[in-house]
Write a structure and sequence with these properties.
The chain is mainly β. Helices cover 0% and strands 49% of the residues.
């Protein structure tokens, strides 16, 4: 079992920055790829970013490339999502996720996710 706890969400003006953190715990948490999905009310959850268990290969949704950066600490227990140049359309609940998909450095689908965090709200005002 892996537990994921997000922090760092909040309200920011368009053009601003936020950094989300996700702390993972559990005996095998370091063997999982970790990443972020987001969801707007009335819409399906969508992939945002992912980083391999080793902290190497990453993947991003086209909508956030060049603005968001995912990273992982050396211990592998915490993953970060640095969000710059935020836009109102980035407003959503952001979920930290963990998966064991064999797709290295590639996006994953909702069906691939093994564990979800509780979510943290990010609101970008125009």
């Amino acid at each position: 079992q892996v537990q994921l706890v997000e922090s760092g969400g909040g309200l920011v003006q368009a053009g601003g920055s936020l950094r989300l953190s996700c702390a993972a715990s559990g005996r095998t948490s370091r063997s999982y790829a970790m990443g972020w999905f987001r969801q707007v009310p009335g819409k399906e959850r969508e992939f945002v970013a992912r980083i391999s268990w080793s902290g190497g290969p990453t993947a991003y949704a086209d909508s956030v490339k060049g603005r968001f950066t995912i990273s992982r600490d050396n211990a592998g227990d915490t993953v970060y999502l640095q969000m710059n140049s935020l836009k109102p359309e980035d407003t959503a609940v952001y979920y930290c996720v963990a998966d064991r998909s064999v797709r290295i450095g590639q996006p994953v689908e909702v069906e691939d996710i093994d564990y979800w965090g509780q979510g943290t709200q990010v609101t970008v005002s125009s």
